[in-house]
């Protein structure tokens, strides 16, 4: 397979997160394994000359299929015990975006979001109408109940017993990916089941442009995770982009926007960011956030605040 | 009635818009009459010592009841001939926000949005679930079809005949209000029926924080109108707030953010803005946008690009 690291001169980078929150120790290994698999899958698309959008969607696909994460199969449940999912994609070249909110019974909500971007004159479709639109055009449906896992049911029972549906720190495990491709184009993709015990019809931050994600080739690309309502009120993804436009690095912009969210709203969140030069930003003010990125032959990853591991990847075809 | 123009030292201001778009000449008188009535109704709340949020909601109420505008009664119809409405409120003191998307059959979607802010742990509820939540807590329901007007039906027929559902310039007539009260607090309220012939389940910019509106006591407050998908992609309301944070006046920030939207996406929009000092910004890059504001004993209003009328208001009780 030929390397496609040419064009705009920026390196190929595929950066993912597997959700900010209070991840229990026993959940750490599967999350770290999952984010690395996702970053690798997305990077393979980039290395084959694929577009940033295809790569980011491929990475999210891997995590939607993995019940270690709260997206697709393994999504948390609303107060009625149902899966209602949110997802967003954004293309940095055109600012085109597509999203779905509270969509039921599709295997890959990120595919539905992408379909909205490419085939609808709108950005955001919600509910059963979003599902009908997507499935009629080939997005894979899931039988009713097929996305519900015993773990999600247990989490809902705990929420009901605690009487706490606000879920500030539940290890929500929203997933997201950002990418820069060989032509220097950027993309963002984010997918989630929301919060355990949420009200029926609740749309979180994930499918909202500027909240759950953003991509602008002239600046950078972001995917966020954490307390959704706080991310909405601060327009977290757009705030990071604005700080980068003012000259901050991807890392400093991400950290500063999160600090501001914490200061004003006293809740937690995290975000992953790429500049249009391929510089990486990873930050969270929650207890943990799983993340990983592949850049060149290095796989970087972590989940605790000061953790930053690097592995050299031995490519089979080299 | 005592004047409440004290506290933070900023003047009381109630500023409204009645939608950006290609308003036909015959629609101008009713729109100008409607925005002035709305501005006056909201201002009365401020002058009685009421909160900015109460005042902004009162102004939107007037326009939701007036079928000269595309909100509440008189909302445009989706492709199936149904009313599905969007609304948002935001409170500048706390950054609290509440919104509803594609809500059917309530007289005042803005009341439902406010209820979400005050009584739900979420920001955005959509669809039938939003209606059930609101009506169960006292928001006035409307019988099925009661919000549908002959004019909205005619507009849908035209859209179908043209085969153009993207509706870049339909005089959409979204309504919005921003206010500053006697304690210097800010609020934003926006309500719409969306675009004529939109897909079922389409959520526009109006209920999205940072798109349809924003309010932050440390900066200012905004309500937007126009091509919804473009407003979403540029986070128009938040972009205006960011420019004001950087030192631009309400007017300059509003104009610059709209110019940027037009340059990047080649669509039209408008916005109204108040700074936390009570300075007014009104701008649009569409053919027309009806607007009005009451400040002291002056009523300002207009609808064409260079139109700015002022009337002295004779208060009955003075």
From TrEMBL, chains A, B:
InterPro entries: ASRGL1_meta (IPR033844), Ntn_hydrolases_N (IPR029055), Peptidase_T2 (IPR000246). The record marks 173-174 as: Cleavage. It catalyses: Cleavage of a beta-linked Asp residue from the N-terminus of a polypeptide; L-asparagine + H2O = L-aspartate + NH4(+). Signal peptide: none annotated. GO terms for biological process: L-asparagine catabolic process via L-aspartate; proteolysis. The active site is at residue 174. It holds the Pfam family Asparaginase_2. SUPFAM superfamilies: N-terminal nucleophile aminohydrolases (Ntn hydrolases). Belongs to the Ntn-hydrolase family. Substrate binds at residues 202-205, 225-228. GO terms for molecular function: asparaginase activity; beta-aspartyl-peptidase activity. GO terms for cellular component: cytoplasm. Has both L-asparaginase and beta-aspartyl peptidase activity. Does not have aspartylglucosaminidase activity and is inactive toward GlcNAc-L-Asn. Likewise, has no activity toward glutamine. This is Uncharacterized protein. Keywords: Autocatalytic cleavage, Hydrolase, Protease. It comes from Gryllus longicercus. Heterodimer of an alpha and beta chain produced by autocleavage.
